[in-house]
Amino acid sequence: MRALTSALEWQSRAVVGRHLRVYLKNWHTSFLPPVLEPITLLLAFGLGLGAYMASGIEWKGRAIGYMSFVAPGMLAYATFMTSIFQSLFGAFIRMRYQRTWEGQLTTQIELRHVVWGEILWAGLLTTSYVAIVGLVLSGCQAIGLLQLELEYLPFVIPIVFVSACAFAALGLCFTALVPTIDHMNLPIFLVVLPLGFVSATYFPLGHPVLAAISTANPVYHLAEGLRGLLLGDGPGYHLAALAGLLGAMLGVLVPLDMRLLRKRVLGD
Amino acid sequence: MTDMPPLLEARALVKRLGGRLVVDGVDLDCHAGQVLGLLGPNGAGKTTTLRMLYGFLSADGGAIRFEGADVSKDLDRFKRQLGVCTQDDTFDGDFTVRQNLEMAARYFRPRPPEVPRRVDELLERFALVPYAGDKPEALSGGFRRRLMIARALVHRPHLLFLDEPTTGLDPQARVAVWDLVNGLRAEGLGIVLTTHYMDEAERLSDALTVLAQGKVVAHGPPKSVLGDMLGDHVVVLEADGSTMPAVAAWLATRLLGEPLSVLGAWHLPLSGEQLADFAREFPALRYEVRPPNLDDLFLKLALPCAR
Question: What pTM did the predictor assign?
Answer without folding.
Answer: 0.90
